[in-house]
Amino acid sequence: MARVFVYGTLKKGQPNYSRLFESRNGKAEFLASAFTTQKYPLVIAGKFNIPFLLNLPGQGHRVHGEIYKVDDQMLKFLDDFESVPTMYQRTMVELEVKEWMGKTDGEEKPSPGSIAEAFMYSTTTYQSEWPTLPSYESYDSYGDHGLNYVTREARD
Ligand code: PCA
User: Fold this and answer.
1) Residue 29 CA to ligand 1 centre (angstroms)
2) DSSP characters over 83-100
3) Of all protein residues, whose CA lies closest to atom 5 belonging to ligand 1?
């Protein structure tokens, strides 16, 4: 079992959320809403409007997202889906819990403001202009920016 922090298209209501709940991919369980303790640039880039969290701590915003508990099969599926290690790298991130909703197997529920750690899909290999793109605190594919994510199925 592992914890994964998602900030992009895998969040609830976003275009890839359903991948977390396709049983052939493995298992996932929502644990908490959270945000990064450090600031990072979260930009939307490329012709498919893909969200990327650039591994440049200190720039941008404290990024909001969701923590899921996943089994090994789902972690492998996500690594593959996110094209690790070429497109994204799976790194550890420190988070501040907003609201813990999930089970904790006997332990006390982490309270709002407590610190948690999880994997996330960030990128260390990006184009030089990406850090100058607008950065977002909370990703929404359907936001005012008009940069709707282009799903895999819709790419040619
Ligand atoms: N999927 C991963 C990384 C960016 C994306 O769109 C996520 O939601 O965290």
Assistant:
1) 16
2) TTTTT-EEEEEEEEEEEE
3) 8
65 HSE (CA, 13 A, CB side): 32
Q: Which residues pair with 40 in a beta bridge?
A: 61
Ligand 1 centroid to residue 7 C-alpha, Å? 6
* 40 in contact with ligand 1, CB cutoff 6 A: no
Q: One digit per residue, pLDDT tens: the chain, 156 residues? A: 999 999 999 999 999 999 999 999 999 999 999 999 999 999 999 999 999 999 999 999 999 999 999 999 999 999 999 999 999 999 999 999 999 999 887 888 999 999 999 999 999 889 999 999 999 999 999 999 999 999 988 987
Instruction: Read off the amino acid at residue 43.
Output: V
Residue 131 lies in a domain: yes
Decide: 121 in ligand 1 pocket, CB within 6 A. Answer: yes
CB of 118 shorter than 6 A to ligand 1 = no
**Ligand 1 centroid from CA 106, angstroms:** 30
Residue type, 118: A
Which residues are annotated as catalytic? Answer: 82
CATH of residue 122's domain is: 3.10.490.10
- Any domain includes 153: no
Domain assignment present for 151: no
156 in any annotated domain: no
